[in-house]
Hints:
The structure is a homodimer.
Chain A: H1 6-17, H2 23-42, H3 47-59, E1 61-67, E2 73-74, H4 76-88, H5 104-118, H6 122-150, H7 157-170, H8 175-186, H9 200-220, H10 236-239, H11 273-284, E3 292-299, H12 315-318, H13 322-330, H14 343-347, H15 349-355, E4 358-362, E5 370-377, E6 380-387, H16 394-409, H17 411-422, H18 432-439, H19 451-457
Parallel strand pairs in A: 3-4
Antiparallel strand pairs in A: 1-2, 3-5, 5-6
Helix pairs in contact in A: 1-6, 1-7, 1-8, 2-4, 2-6, 2-16, 2-17, 3-4, 4-5, 4-9, 5-6, 5-7, 5-9, 6-7, 7-8, 7-9, 8-9, 11-13, 13-15, 16-17
Amino acid sequence: MKDTITLTHKLAAFAATSDVQDARMQRFVQLSLFDWATVGIAGTHEPVARAARMMALETAPSSKGATLFGGGRASAAAAALVNGATSHALDYDDTHFGHIGHPSVAVIPAALAAAETAKADAATFLDAVAVGLETACRVGAWLGRSHYEAGFHQTGTSGAFGATAAAARVLGLDAATMSEALCLAATRAAGLKSQFGTMGKPLNAGFAAEVGVTCALLAQAGATSSPDAIEGVQGFGVTHAGSAERAALDQIGTDWQFPRVSYKFHACCHGLHAMLEALRDLRSAGVVPGDVEAVTIRTHPRWLAVCNQPAPATGLQAKFSYRLTAAMMLGGVDTASLEVYSDETCARDDLQALRDRVTVQPDDSLTDSQASVSVVVRGQTLEAHHDILADADPNSLEHRLRAKATTLIGAAAAEDLWNTVSGLGASRSTLDRLAERVGAPAQSAGPRVDPSLAASIMPTA
Amino acid sequence: MKDTITLTHKLAAFAATSDVQDARMQRFVQLSLFDWATVGIAGTHEPVARAARMMALETAPSSKGATLFGGGRASAAAAALVNGATSHALDYDDTHFGHIGHPSVAVIPAALAAAETAKADAATFLDAVAVGLETACRVGAWLGRSHYEAGFHQTGTSGAFGATAAAARVLGLDAATMSEALCLAATRAAGLKSQFGTMGKPLNAGFAAEVGVTCALLAQAGATSSPDAIEGVQGFGVTHAGSAERAALDQIGTDWQFPRVSYKFHACCHGLHAMLEALRDLRSAGVVPGDVEAVTIRTHPRWLAVCNQPAPATGLQAKFSYRLTAAMMLGGVDTASLEVYSDETCARDDLQALRDRVTVQPDDSLTDSQASVSVVVRGQTLEAHHDILADADPNSLEHRLRAKATTLIGAAAAEDLWNTVSGLGASRSTLDRLAERVGAPAQSAGPRVDPSLAASIMPTA
């Protein structure tokens, strides 16, 4: 056995056989599954979702297949593609900075499509999602920054490995067959960052999910592959500018990396999120808009070229404005909503008055995930700081993800979805209710998000 | 409009709108379609074909979909995957040295699956195959040797672009929509040479065909993409070690490159083919085995490490033996047959006697596509030379491809297939008969070819 295939063996053994007993991991799987379904339901009417859905329903309909966001069923591979693209359409899903990408939108659609097709139970599905998400994060870290900088989109590439691990785990493949599936994925994993700003970005997530389902099903049917395909001399890593960080697999299965995931709570540029969180803390502490005399924002210098529109006039500009979104947060506007980023919001007198009291300063002592704010309230200065990479309390995240879901899909659907997802842990439960939630017609067409906007909101991955 | 997207525009305009009036191109499309169907039918029982077919029939069956080799119908995407892998399973399909790969096994399955799904007529299908094959060759040349040497398998990568062009042409997409489809393919095109020697190699062809169908259908349904995705700053070319040979697109649509394709007429290592062709000429000129006193083979030195088994004992070794296959050719054995490479053939006294009169010499004045032979017959020396890249007469190729088909699938099936393919040019003909031929149960299970063998037979692409 060659040294070079240690990584593949480790991954395959982990994905096929590990127990998912870690309570924190289980909790984050629950949160991400809920958030994934929320943004997928909310994204159903986006143009990329419509295109993918039309393609699947016209060319791969299957009553025995898997459920699509918005309803209907297609072959497992087609459903994975549609649901991956749909859930990433708003670019509002979870992000993992170790993975350098969006893990859930590749992994969960693959796991669900495989589970519906194989009639797997909920416990199997949840374990599969867990190992898939962890695999995506580990492979993403192994490929590393060099892979991303070279032009590859980890959401698509390491996402394909995570999706394969998840689908193969659903199917119950043993470690040797899991290895075949992962090595088949090595010759299909793809995805370019040059698609950012187009429908190609969410499609990269869908394509990764499809790769996972197809490679797992092929391996189950007896297809085999090269054991060198991931880390051999001309394996996926070397041929795709991978940094080959060996430590990326350390303690896999015991030290779970996925729970470092970040959730998005504001439907605007990622560069604004740390500031919005800091201001949210002050607002929660009782700051009232009418009392605010001055606001100073300190942020990493790189963001000033990205999201510092001083006086936005359109909804699109609003999504890239420290000053206006600061005013929106202090003024009680729900920044999780897609609709509030509008020309009307930009024109509100009260928000403009607040906005004009905001000053933005570069501060290179901060990382690009951090922001510090100071607000002068009746002569008194209040300070707050936030780092969006800081570990968060899962109970607090649950509260906020449920509020986000209420904003995006309505209170009743959000409640129903939460009850469904949180009930999946029960013994012998099936996935029928989850599939029903995914397939329910979305309540309204909702606002259409221009794909160039959706991608530019979250420029980091 | 940026300079950098000239290639994409050229390709899209060519693939969407070019007339295929070139008689030589039409003739080679006919020959390759026939050879593709022959080796696909012959490959139906190979393990990789069985695995892919089982996967498709179990997870994506579709009565309205497209036909699989061996029978049954699946979604267009799944059928393309299955038929691509099946037709490359024996590694006995056509090769193009400018493309650096196997064009037909990626392009034709995509065109056929799209055509069956869209109920396109035969004339549309033939035009689509032509532009798809040409696109694969042009993109393969544009990616160039550097791409191949870096570890990528043009059969999968440029194959995906060719398959997309073919499927999109079948669907009648205009040039702008064709461009979207090709740019979507840029974020999915994949395939590693590290799969050589495994089922991953034929699957690379199937994956490319599937990419073509899916990207064409997505573009038809309204999905859009980045116009920089192929040749932009971080487009497919740069990120995949492409050599960016701009001349690769010169005179596209007027000077057709595909007709430089090579066909395989011997079921053994590619390094033996030039010698076998030269000896075949002498045999045709009347050389009789009993008269042969000595045979000298001159070949490019690199082949001596590949296929110079001096006294093979097994069928596998026979496929890599200059001396034995020379004896087989002179002794009247049908080297196109899969079955003749057997332990029994190795043990035949008459062949061993001939074999022992053969001497193999390296000659670095020859290219690796050339061989020279001299045969001493009753004291007289006869010479012959062959270059497998030399242009061949299409009528002679037709004769030989029909003989190959007779060997592989039987005389009746070969005749029926030829009549079907050669009848496709007629006005208003449909693809029903071609689909029937593809879907007919293969006559016998045939010999099972070990995938490590199948790939090693043809080490060049």
